[in-house]
């Protein structure tokens, strides 16, 4: 049979496939030196290492093996079965250089950050397996107790090692260590010329037979919002699961990032348009693109999430309740959006401290319970084949359709907020006017050249710089911004007073 040769070579991904021993892996990718990883105090007390392979979370599923699963994998390597699955890596410097040549600057900067920290490769697939190998070789994960049989050596002697207890690598018999390093075989695939798009596509292909969800596919983007939400995932996912805002299943595999993104996008849309419209996956896909409006607005979005919303979520587990959660999962969404409404309309707690925040949470939860208890009111959900459909509150609380979201928010805005404004739980904050020289001069005259609170003499030559206007009744507590509610104080006194007020509020 005549074999035909291709006249034109189709471009293929440039890569090297290597069969290496565990000893070669150790020599190539783990160096003694400064600590570049974060860990527990116990981990940091271990011998320091420079790890040349890093975990790039933009191309990794979130799921992380527990120690037992890592130990099982290490046992299979020690027994000589580590080459059953390929480990896929990206050559950081070569791909960075290609990105620079092609003008893909965000991707180039992303890879360059790893290179600057001394890394050579990043995971593409096999992150959990690589972490297990590195953990074993750096004495963080022990070799599982067992009988390790390597057959016969060149002299015909039986080569085996009984490991009676789980043992760290550094504590193993020297001959046993050498045997593991030489017999533990791995197969690595190192890609040298992947673009960002090619890397993302290859990542989707190499997923251990498990379909990637939309959040995992989206996580391959190189953008501010993508990286920032991964940080929020690390900081707060456990908190949100504990507070019952999300189940573990709905938080894992980067779904927490998707949840946060939808909250932020819906909130931002209301702040800009005044309309309630729940952000779907298609919108989040757009938001995650580098340079999108959501990407540019991310710093403000994150600040609101962390400084305004998260403190309330932290209070829920702290209440020491048997089942510390709000009445329904939708209540967490509605609470975030209610805080958004308050921000847009300059409504705040009359006083800000832990007690008033807990009280606000309780009042909100009671309000939600009242809505669930209402068996009379029907809410419009959608029109199907010309027929309008209606449901009780319990029905609209489980749906993210705009009509349902608007109905829930209208209830809170029309009933809940006005009631709390009336009883002074909340207050609408008045905008400050710009400090004018005429007001300072007028108060200087009426106060006879002395500060209002301490009676300290005010030097007229430094009136503009050393004296400040203070509201007798704070704006946040309903005070007006008129001159009748203002007094002249020394800068030192006013700053100390503001600091004390802030300390009490926190």
Briefly, what is this?
By secondary structure, the chain is α+β, with helices and mostly antiparallel strands. It is 49% helix and 14% strand.
What does this structure look like?
The protein has a five-stranded mixed beta sheet, sandwiched between helices. The protein is 49% helix and 14% strand. It is an alpha+beta fold.
Shape: elongated
Helical fraction equals 40-55%
SS elements, strand count: 15
Order of strands across the biggest sheet? 1-9-5-6-4
Decide which structural class fits the backbone. alpha+beta
Which tags fit this structure?
4 domains; two-stranded antiparallel ribbon; 5-stranded mixed sheet; alpha+beta; 22 helices; 15 strands
What's the SSE blueprint?
Elements lengths: L14 E7 H8 E3 L8 H4 L4 E3 L1 E2 L12 H12 L7 E6 H11 L2 H12 L4 E5 L1 H11 L8 E7 L5 E6 L10 H10 L1 E7 L4 H10 L8 H5 L5 H19 L5 H4 L3 H19 L7 H7 L5 H4 L1 H21 L10 H16 L2 E3 L4 H20 L5 E6 L2 E5 L1 H4 L5 H21 L3 E3 L8 H10 L16 H4 E5 L14 E5 H15 L1
Parallel strand pairs: 4-6, 5-9
Antiparallel strand pairs: 1-9, 2-3, 5-6, 7-8, 10-13, 11-12, 14-15
Helix pairs in contact: 1-7, 3-6, 4-5, 10-12, 10-15, 12-13, 12-16, 16-19
């Amino acid at each position: 049979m005549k074999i035909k040769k291709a006249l034109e070579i189709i471009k293929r991904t440039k890569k090297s496939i290597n069969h290496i021993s565990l000893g070669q892996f150790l020599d190539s990718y783990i160096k003694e030196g400064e600590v570049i990883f974060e860990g527990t105090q116990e981990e940091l007390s271990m011998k320091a290492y420079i790890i040349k392979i890093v975990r790039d979370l933009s191309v990794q599923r979130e799921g992380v093996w527990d120690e037992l699963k890592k130990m099982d994998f290490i046992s299979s390597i020690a027994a000589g079965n580590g080459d059953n699955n390929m480990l896929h890596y990206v050559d950081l410097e070569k791909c960075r250089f290609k990105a620079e040549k092609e003008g893909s600057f965000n991707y180039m900067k992303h890879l360059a950050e790893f290179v600057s920290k001394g890394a050579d490769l990043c995971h593409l697939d096999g992150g959990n397996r690589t972490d297990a190998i590195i953990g074993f070789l750096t004495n963080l994960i022990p070799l599982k107790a067992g009988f390790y049989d390597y057959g016969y050596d060149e002299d015909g002697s039986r080569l085996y090692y009984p490991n009676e207890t789980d043992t760290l690598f550094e504590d193993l018999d020297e001959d046993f260590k050498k045997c593991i390093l030489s017999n533990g075989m791995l197969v690595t695939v190192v890609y040298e010329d992947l673009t960002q798009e090619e890397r993302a596509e290859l990542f989707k292909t190499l997923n251990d037979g498990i379909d990637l969800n939309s959040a995992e596919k989206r996580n391959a983007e190189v953008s501010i919002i993508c990286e920032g939400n991964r940080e929020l995932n690390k900081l707060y996912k456990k908190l949100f699961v504990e507070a019952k805002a999300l189940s573990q299943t709905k938080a894992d595999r980067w779904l927490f990032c998707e949840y946060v993104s939808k909250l932020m996008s819906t909130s931002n849309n209301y702040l800009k348009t005044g309309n309630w419209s729940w952000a779907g996956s298609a919108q989040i896909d757009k938001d995650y693109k580098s340079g999108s409006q959501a990407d540019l607005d991310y710093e403000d979005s994150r600040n609101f999430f962390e400084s305004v919303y998260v403190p309330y979520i932290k209070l829920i587990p702290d209440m020491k309740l048997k089942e510390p959660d709000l009445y329904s999962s939708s209540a967490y969404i509605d609470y975030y959006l209610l805080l958004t409404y308050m921000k847009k309309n300059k409504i705040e707690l009359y006083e800000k401290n832990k007690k008033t925040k807990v009280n606000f949470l309780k009042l909100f939860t009671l309000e939600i319970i009242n809505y669930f208890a209402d068996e009379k009111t029907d809410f419009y959900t959608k029109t199907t084949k010309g027929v309008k459909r209606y449901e009780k509150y319990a029905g609209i609380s489980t749906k993210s359709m705009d009509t349902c979201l608007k109905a829930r928010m209208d209830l809170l805005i029309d009933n809940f907020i006005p009631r709390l404004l009336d009883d002074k739980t909340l207050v609408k904050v008045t905008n400050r006017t710009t400090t004018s020289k005429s007001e300072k001069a007028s108060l200087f005259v009426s106060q006879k050249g002395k500060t209002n609170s301490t009676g300290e003499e005010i030097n007229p030559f430094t009136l503009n710089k050393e004296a400040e206007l203070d509201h007798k009744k704070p704006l946040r507590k309903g005070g007006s911004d008129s001159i009748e509610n203002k007094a002249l104080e020394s800068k030192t006194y006013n700053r100390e007073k503001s600091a004390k007020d802030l300390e009490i509020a926190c």
